[in-house]
Predict the structure.
Amino acid sequence: MAENHTIRPICLGSADHEPRDAYALCDTHSAFLCIQCLIEKRHLQSDLCNVIDLSNFTTKYDRAKIERIMFTQEANNKIASRENEEETIGQARVNIAQEMEKHFEQLKAKLQGIKDKCQRDMCDDFDKQLQIEEVKREKDILERMETSLQDSIDVLLEADKKGAMDSQSPEFFRYREQERHARSTVAHLKKENKTELVSRFDLAPNLVDILSGRKSLFGKTVFTSSIRK
């Protein structure tokens, strides 16, 4: 081969070695071969391969043939490289999507836990409102009064069934006195009871910002490296 060639054909190698300078050509398969591949006969397939030493290619036609094979080799390498880039980028896209989904599920679980705790705290707060001294005292009074009135009614009904009760009997007057006392107590409680419970729920500011659209960024893809062209 002419000595003025500055770019030497490359043996693409195999799993056993990296690409290196070629010294022969398998004319049958248009494949360049290095010394190691020639010695170990890795490419040769019995009598099918026609291997020619590159030094035997001396004419301009030989040079054109070698260059064509080199250009084809380079084009195939670039195609394979681009396909590898597409596969790498595609897999990276899938990985990022899966990571986003994982974070989304984690956020949902965390938010559910926060909401559940907030709901338990809310229930505790309402229970405390029911236990304030004034409300509890009035409730106790009303419960005792209700029990007393019911007992008196039961006595009156039982006596009336037996015909032993009339509107002038002491038991009847005692019941009417309890009734007046109950009415007076209820009226007093209604007048004095000024308890007014006003409540509302305020969502956390950061969650309000998300719902209102002021914060709409879920995350950001960060590239720590890029495909080199």
